[in-house]
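Posting this for the archive.
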Amino acid sequence: MFVHFRTLSIALLATFALSACADLAYVFNKNKSNDKVSSTPQTDVSAKPANYLPQRDEQPINTVRSQHDVYHAAQCLVQHIASDFNLPDDFYATQGYDDGAATVLLVNPATGKSGLYIDIVPMNNGSQLLLYPNRATISNAWKRLPEKCR
């Protein structure tokens, strides 16, 4: 049994070594014409672009500065949506972005369409909360929601 384990270990190590070499050749684009390794890494044109906070086509109806960072401000908003408005988990969602921003939005679980959304943008030692109605009429209670997470 020990012999089979040793053989398996050697086979796994060889596989990992070959895999590492293949990855390096891919990253550095081995030039087949003169067998030299290019010093510039290849970019994958099929890679997804960075996921940044999208540009909005409407103006926010409420903008609030918060002392909380983006993560804690989003958690605060979610907590108030769940407790103050008594909404179940499938009626709201959060989305994080590569630029450090986030969005908390209302979602209709039956249709998948989104309602109002609150963008949370990092700013100095805190964040800024921007409430967008998403072309809907919303109540004053929803308009004041960002103020609860100052």
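The CA atoms of residues 25 and 33 lie 14 Å apart. The chain has two domains: 2-37, 62-149.
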